[in-house]
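For reproducibility, we list the full input for the protoporphyrin IX containing FE complex.
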Amino acid sequence: MSAEFSCAPGPQAPCDLDRLDDKLERMQALWQQYGDCYRVASESRRADTFVINHPDWVRRVLVSNHRNYTKGVGIERVRVLLGNGLMASEGDYWRRQRRMLQSGFHKPRIERFFPAYFEEAVRLAERWLSCARRGEVVNISESLSETTLLAVLRALFSEDLAMLQQRLGANPFQVVTRDSRRDLQFAVKFRALGKLVQEVVDLRRRESRFPPDLLSHCMLARDKSEGEAMPDRQLIDEVLTLIVAGHETTAASLSWTWYLLSRHPAVCEALTAEARSCAMHTVPDWRVLESMEYIPQLIKESLRLYPPGWLYTRRALDEDNFGKYKLPAGSDVFICSYLLHRHPTYWDRPERFMPERFSSENELSRHRFAYIPFSAGPRHCIGESFAMSEMMIHLAVLARHVRPEPVTGPQVEPEAAVNLRPRRALHLRFKPVE
Ligand code: HEM
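The corresponding predicted structure, in tokenized form, follows.
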């Protein structure tokens, strides 16, 4: 190693961080001990893991030198569930798929899904309001998982979802919310849903019917250079990826948001005030969403404290360096957005819930890469606008009808598994908004 570089500090004992049940707590303790770049030798691999918590190095891995990195540990498990869809694919294959899917997520296209977001929010508001009137406790984890699943299914299948539901007597995709395990058994059950997706694809082709939804987008997309459609196997992987990626993260994020609202009545007041002042009696358009100031700040702050995608894993193809620390080829790199979002150098009173941090003036003065709930660079979340608009509509509709009560009982504990979500189902009581 040349004299200008040194070896990153770290514990002597080897350990596979990704296999620990308490990996978030362990990473937090090691960060406090060793700083913004530390190295942990692996027990099962010959390469070391480098954990970085500095926005300049985050930019290097995700943006400026992204070609040097592939997705890292854990991606094999994701592939068992999602096949070679956008989340798990790599290289030229990923680039081609991303190009084909990208325009389906542009803002004007997403606006077509606003009626689905709006109707699901109205339906949920009615349910929560009647629980509020009866003084009943609501299992919000369950409600939010169902409502976000329906939003993404309607965006994918539009009228064919009702057709499937009618034929099979129930929503066949419900397994995704009913079964919270993400193991091999679940993967087998989930992959079997691919057959239903294929049925819908075949039906649409027979009828030459292509409603303006995400499934039609995938069916009609053509590769720019070859002019070819994606093969059906790939199409199914993409659809299954969008179902999982598009609902679990949004459900987790809304759970955390309602939890935070239940503990911060003043924030709740401000939310209700904005919800009442914007034109939400009917399906909104982007103009209405863009007129909201407080609701996006509130969502961003919730995503700061509890980013559902809390850990990004990458593997270096070639050597690299983080400041004075050398990174050998083949090393694993972990970026923990949960810890980055609470770094005291970049955040004032990081543990406090303060939506106003995201006012436009405050946003200007912050390091761009200290906040990455949707990741950054070419592999950033393709569904960011989808998720933000869905959550804004959800909150604006529900806050006109109900207000959460403070929760009593034990503190809600985060579970840092594939996503960061409350360890146990979250229950809240609501009051009708007068
Ligand atoms: C609050 C909601 C959401 C959050 C916090 C979130 C977060 C993320 C993050 C952090 C990544 C990058 C993961 C990595 O680099 O390792 C990602 C990728 C992805 N997300 Fe999201 N996501 C959300 C909603 C959605 C929605 C609604 C969809 C689709 C309907 C979606 C589809 C995807 C896909 C397909 C990828 C892979 C993109 C690629 O690699 O090209 N996400 N998301």
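Residues 262 and 406 are 5 Å apart (CA to CA). DSSP finds 19 helices and twelve strands in the chain. Both points were considered when choosing residues for closer inspection.
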